[in-house]
Amino acid sequence: MRLTWLGMLAWIWWLQTAHAEPVQSSSQAIEPWGNAASGDGLAPRFLRWLAAQSGLQLRQDIRPLPRVVEDLKSGQNALALITASTERDGFGLEVCRPTAIRLSVIYRDAGRKLSLADLRRRPVGILRGTHTLDRFLAESGADRVFVRDLHQGFRMLRAGRLDAMMCVRPGCGHTLRELSTPADKWAELLISSEPMAVYVSRAHPLARDAAMLDRLRAACASPQGKQELAALLARYD
């Protein structure tokens, strides 16, 4: 009986201290989700709120998207908010889908609306590390030009080095307003809407903590969670 009680006490102690140490959470360096220069962004703010509601401590940073994904695969990144996909389900345990991104391309308005066929062999700026426009690129035949971020892409578009630039909302509207002048006339070709998901790495011990996962899901789906995200979306777009 003594051993049984000792075992129960040890189990209770483990539950209380399992998340006393912060777990690593990396967000993508794609605005507005994350800004490497400031270490801030929509994703770290929402994940920080989610963790606080669930009793989880985070150690956060901003990294290029390919690194965020690779670290999620290996378990070095425990928690991330990135675009949902079947491929990512293989190494990430989906907690919730709090929002979606709207994808389009922006081009200079010359009085005629562009179609997919009009972009064949024309340079289109694509954020490095993302694959959300792969189908669009295949169907249009556009020439992919990798850019570091939205700011770089829209500067190249204004300078005539691109014929169109990938637009990701939220975030794109804010960046475009920031860099445009009154003389700039832009048009937009809508492409798709893609869900964003909070993933827990399947290789991290957090994925085996059923109680913590339940708390994260509940916080994400709560009215307070929806209000928090709505406020962040309004701020960053």
The computed structural class is: alpha/beta
State the separation between the terminal residues, measured CA to CA.
60 Å
Major sheet summary line: 6 strands, mixed
Query: Could you spell the SSE succession in H and E letters?
Result: HEHEHEHEEHEHEHEHH
Order of the strands making up the biggest sheet: 3-8-4-7-5-6
Please report which band the strand proportion falls in: under 5%, 5-15%, 15-25%, 25-35%, 35-45% or over 45%.
25-35%
Walk me through what this model shows:
The protein has nine helices and eight strands. It is of the alpha/beta class and 237 residues long. The strands form two sheets. A six-stranded mixed beta sheet has the order 3-8-4-7-5-6. The chain has a two-stranded parallel sheet with strand order 1-2. Strand 1 (23-28), helix 2 and strand 2 form a beta-alpha-beta unit. Helix 2 (42-54) runs antiparallel to helix 9 and helix 6 crosses helix 7 (172-179). The longest helix has 16 residues, at 2-17.
SSE blueprint:
Blueprint: H1 2-17, E1 23-28, H2 42-54, E2 58-63, H3 65-74, E3 79-83, H4 86-89, E4 92-108, E5 123-127, H5 134-140, E6 143-147, H6 150-158, E7 164-169, H7 172-179, E8 186-201, H8 210-221, H9 223-236
Parallel strand pairs: 1-2, 5-6, 5-7
Antiparallel strand pairs: 3-8, 4-7, 4-8
Helix pairs in contact: 2-8, 2-9, 6-7
